[in-house]
Give the backbone structure.
Amino acid sequence: MSESAEKWLSMNEIAQHLGISRDTVLTWIKDKKMPAHKIGRIWKFQASEVDAWIKNGNSAE
């Protein structure tokens, strides 16, 4: 699937994808610069960006 056609995930979907809580997602956005895009008041994510960010070790810093 190309990046332009990749489905955007909600906060709940990305938390479920990663097996973590919504609170952890919010903490990672704030403290660890997790790749997230704010659309109005809603956070959206692309799984490929988040997966690459984790594989690069950024969630462990």
About this structure: Residues 28 and 34 are 5 Å apart (CA to CA). The mean pLDDT is 91. The first strand starts at residue 37 and ends at 39. Strands lie at 37-39, 42-44.
